[in-house]
Amino acid sequence: MDILDTSQQELRAELRTAARAMLSAHSSSAQVRELAESAHGFDAELWRRFTVLGWPSIEVGEDHGGAGGSFGDLAVILVELGRHLCGNGLMATAALGAGPLLGAEAGSYAAPYLRRLAEGDFRAAAVVGGTGSDHLQAVRAGDGWGVSGTASLIADVAGSDLVILPVTDADGARLVFAVDPTRPGLTWVDAPMLDITRRFADLDARGLRVRDTEVLARGPAAEALVADLLNRAALATACDAFGVAERALQMTTAYAKQRIQFGRPIGSFQAIKHRCADMFIAVETARAVLDDAIDRYDATPATAAVAISRAKSYCCDAAAQVTEDAVELHGGIGFTWEHDMHLYVKRARLDQALFGDSRWHRRRVAALTLTLTPGQAAEHLS
Amino acid sequence: MEYRATLSTPDDLADFRATVRAWAEEHIPTGWESRFGGAVDEGFRAFQREWLQTLRDGGYAAPHWAKEWGGGGYSLAEQIVIFEEFSRLNAPPLRNYFVALNHAYATLMHAGNDEQRKRHLPAILDGEVWCQGFSEPEAGSDLAALRTRAVRKGDVYVVNGQKVWSSRAAFADRCLLLARTDPDAPKRHGISYFLLDMTSPGVEARTIRQATGAAEFCELFLTDVEIPVIDLVGEENDGWRIAQSTLSAERGLAQLELAERMAAALSMVEELVRETTIDGRSAIEDDAVREQLVTLETEVILFRRLCKRMVSDLVRRGGTGPESSIVKVFYSELLQRLMAFGVSLAGLDTHRLTVKPVSAGYESGRWMLDYIDSFAWVIAGGTNEIQRTLIGERVLGLPREPVAS
């Protein structure tokens, strides 16, 4: 992003305003809590609003009926989802499921899915993998593959039309499948979380049959899709955590202005004021590292891993700290179920653990930059 | 190793960049960092004078000044190019002229009159050294409590009092001075802003040895010093407001320089990590050290991005956003963390007695002295506690603390 180019910044500011208005009206914390209590955990009307605004297919090219935007545009919405504690399948579809479909070769069997994504009545989910926690094995069987293994905490897979499955064959080569999640051989077990604002399920795959025509990519192309999917998942989660932190800070400063003790607003006490200032510094520095990663991903996705891992660890750590401070500054009310702050704390901490925790990402940066021969790190920093 | 990067600038500045680069490659001196001792001696001052003159001949002494006052009159985008090309070749900072070129200029343009500009701006370009007389022994963070008195007597103000932390006052030509002109008014409303001639009778400056052992800043004793009325800036008793604009001159492109120098220091830190041995292996193989280094690198990278956004706001809106208020706090504490990390790796040797040349800057590779030096940033220009209060009140809108009467 050119620092002197203001048109893109203005467009994104408009997108942010629109997203905030819509989510404030239709994904308030009361609505989020109501949805959490429901059995299905999905608000079809809210999804329809997403599609009217073109959010699920924001990155899909205009040739497939999408908005032709970039990840940076999607990022604006992901931050707002975090601010509003919103799930409802949007991150799973737009950031995760859409990733390998967008990255698959032109003319592959991903094309019809991209069109369906743009039409709106289509949701996708993805097993992300790549951080060493999930193990799906594929064995050659006839003109297709047999898949078995497990994967934990797959976001928003219930009700999805498609799930992306990265697998490893007997020779250790990567393949990426895309199948209907209701296919026999896939067992999804709802995984209730302490973070009630999002839905997850664990996967037990046994005897799943996948046809060659359902292979999205194999070999080096599959490696690239899997690497990109992890990067997108990490970056999207950093966006979510940033939105959580930004909102927790806003709620805390508002409370500090209004809560009276010792005859004055608690925000006038230096102990509170300085803590709020530190929360603000955490949020603004997180914004800087996040913007840097988003710009690098949009410029050259294949070389953005270092910047993304920096953003994932920094933003999630910042959100964890800011929400922790926020609860304390709210006092007793912040510790109640009735108050929303615990929802932010739990979402921040889950973000921190998803798709590689902060330590994992720092070590990835170290592995990619701190080689034993000096001089190779420079390109990642410049 | 090269950690520097280029801020993106429009392509139509390519010709301009080529011109600047050619000049820079021909004129920027090398090897100056370690050439001088631990004091601001005549050799260092002469070096600074020559460098100012060279820059002036090239038209780069004051890129941000208006053309009519002898400055470069460059746009912000052009200033960024100049800055980048100069820092690429590690040009010496105009340390002795920092207050003159930035604070004095900002003050005169914002609040001075044309006569004052005509009198002082050309002299600054000729090499006048300026200092600041703001803080006092009893007025540090509570600057508005300053007690130095200025009493109007005919065509002069008679000034008595004491100032402290005035860098380079021992050899400065002029001083930006705050003094109380109305002791009965509320404390912020009784202060005036003066341009003090340091050769006036009754002015005495004594150097203060700093924790690093070097002596750059001074205390200033003012005894029946007469300041002509024409050296009053703005209206009498309006000095507090004017001083705010002077302090804001510390923000802006100067921050970019700090960010770039810090990024350059990262390569030094990485080199130290590689050279340091833990249990017979290079520290670069130690997981804990690697994670710490990655964290510091991430912070330096995001600090550069913060500065970049501040400049972008300057270009777009002519002012800065919330970044400017956090830049100082984050920079200073990051510098401390960076240097403390260096000290933690450098072992006993970094505690051996050594002197840091006054020209070496904040990242000299003398880890323990750099660490001590880094404290200057968490204190100077308003301590970080004062900054946090400003962030709380001015950015977050939290209520002010009731002021004891």
Strand content of chain A: 15-25%
CA radius of gyration of chain A is: 21 Å
The CATH superfamily of the largest domain in chain A is identified as Butyryl-CoA Dehydrogenase, subunit A, domain 3
Helix content of chain A: 40-55%
CATH secondary-structure class of the largest domain in chain B: Mainly Alpha
- The number of domains of chain B is 3
The major β-sheet of chain B equals: 4 strands, mixed
CATH architecture classification name of the largest domain in chain A = Up-down Bundle
CATH architecture of the largest domain in chain B: Up-down Bundle
Number of helices of chain A: 12
- The total count of helices of chain B amounts to 11
Verbal overview:
The complex is a heterodimer of chains A (382) and B (405). Chain A is α+β, with helices and mostly antiparallel strands and 382 residues long. Chain A has 3 domains: 117 residues, Acyl-CoA dehydrogenase/oxidase, N-terminal domain (Butyryl-Coa Dehydrogenase, subunit A, domain 1, Orthogonal Bundle); 93 residues, Butyryl-CoA Dehydrogenase, subunit A, domain 2; 160 residues, Butyryl-CoA Dehydrogenase, subunit A, domain 3, CATH 1.20.140.10. In chain A, 52% of the residues lie in helices and 16% in strands. Chain A contains 12 helices and 10 strands. In chain A, strands 1, 2, 3, 4, 5, 6, 7 and 8 form an 8-stranded mixed beta sheet that branches. In chain A, strands 9-10 form a two-stranded antiparallel sheet. The longest helix of chain A has 39 residues. Chain A is globular and about 80 Å long. Chain A starts with 6 loop residues before the first helix and ends with a helix. Chain B is α+β, with helices and mostly antiparallel strands and 405 residues long. Chain B folds into 3 domains: 93 residues, Orthogonal Bundle (Butyryl-Coa Dehydrogenase, subunit A, domain 1); 123 residues, Beta Barrel (Butyryl-CoA Dehydrogenase, subunit A, domain 2); 146 residues, Butyryl-CoA Dehydrogenase, subunit A, domain 3 (Up-down Bundle), CATH 1.20.140. Chain B is built from 11 helices and 10 strands. In chain B, the strands form 3 sheets. In chain B, strands 1-4-5-8 form a 4-stranded mixed beta sheet. Chain B has a 4-stranded antiparallel beta sheet with strand order 2-3-7-6, with no helix packed on it. A two-stranded antiparallel ribbon of chain B has the order 9-10. In chain B, helix 4 runs antiparallel to helix 5, helix 7 packs antiparallel against helix 8 and helix 9 runs antiparallel to helix 10. The longest helix of chain B has 31 residues. At the A-B interface, helix 7, strand 10, helix 8, helix 9 and helix 11 of A face helix 7, helix 8, helix 9 and helix 11 of B.
